[in-house]
Amino acid sequence: MWIYLFLLIxxxxxxxxxxxxxxxKRQGVPFIPARFPVGSFDGVGIHAHPSQLLTKFxxxxxxxxxxVGVYYFLQPVVEVLDLDxxxxxxxxxxQYFHDRGLYHNEKDDPISGNLLNLEGIRWTNQRKKLIxxxxxxxxxxxxxxxxxxxxxxxxxxxxxxxxxxEVEIKDILARFSTDVIATCAFGIDCSSLLDxxxxxxxxxxxxxDVSTWKLMKLFFVFAxxxxxxxxxxxxxxxxxxGFFFKVVRETIxxxxxxxxxxxxxxxxxxxxQEKGELEGSEEKLGNLSLNEVVAHSFVFFLGGFETAxxxxxxxVYELSSNEDVQERARKCVMDAVTKYGELNYDxxxxxxxxxxxxxxxxxxxxxxxxxxxxxxxYQVPDSDVVFxxxxxxxxxxxxxxxxxxxxxxxxxxxxxxxxxxxxxxxxPLTFIPFGEGPRMCVAARLGMLQTxxxxxxxxxGFRFSSCSSAPLRFSPKHFILTxxxxxxxxxxxx
Length: 494
Known about the structure:
four-stranded mixed beta sheet; 9 strands
């Protein structure tokens, strides 16, 4: 009896999987074949980064259809191939695709209820509250604080090259980013550049340290988010969550007790928590809870810690391999500093070639893929296909950024691609490192400012040269495009 029941369950499961994997065929859409249990993403997290697999699918399928069907484990997923459809999803028909579909479980894991993960009207309201902190005026005020942190970057590099001229630059720049975010977001001088064992640095490292078990959880919650919530699954370790709750509570208590006012992210969150409004604004936005303050502080830390540090690292890596580009970037920085008398906000806004170098770095090494989820059934324009509510949509940023149709000789590092003339002649959807439309990264301008300050400081004091001809390899385990073994180069004082 039990044997028959077992065989029945196996047979039904087989038929269910087979039907799942025939979804795109039944829709008449080109698709990438699937293999149980990983679907189309064979080797993801083990041999290949998701961006690399999506690029492979993109090359196989582009030109045959505006999108291609893929399978993420058992889930049918859309990979967009056509720039016009990209624009439709991210901008024109945003109301159908306004959520990222990233896992969050506020009941069991309050820190996950941050701006990156929130959906629907809650995301809209929270974004309205937070966006003023990234205005030009706020960034100008934050700039001297970041420049001051960059002085320790110079000290740290001097210490490194005192013993050896070969330096792993990504670790140093991750510590710089940690110090910037700790200062701007929490008003804390953590000095991880001078003390690598600082607790802020350790927690930041732990967040992005991907074990096999954590990787399995990531894959599971992405594919089966509702089931994961029912199982009370959390992605953030309890000690990390506890650390950020402790830091936020202590910061708020200290500032209230001592009447401390700082022009930083935490001060804005405190205003919202207490008044439910922004200074100088007549719009009532509703109070923030402590959980929301901690969640937004946490995602602010994550964004600044990993994305900015990785972009700076890849940029220095490319400059070390292209000496003529490095010299042009250095001259651009020195000319601006000479013109304004110091490294300040105005000088940083007047460094066009350095900005071109950063943009070319973001083209070659975009941090991540753009994800959206269908929030209500969507009829694809000029098609009989309907994307059902809940389906995930992927925009393969890495593939678009390396498409020779848009970027001739895409593997060559060439900042002149981002001259004013070149940018004006190109479809803007060919360059979307921060996403596009209403849901693009809210802190992109702060990330650019932080990156400029770090790179300008290094270029003014140091020369970088390549010490290895080995090609880069990307870690298959990290969500952000991360180099295996770090980025090593020779550094010498000017």
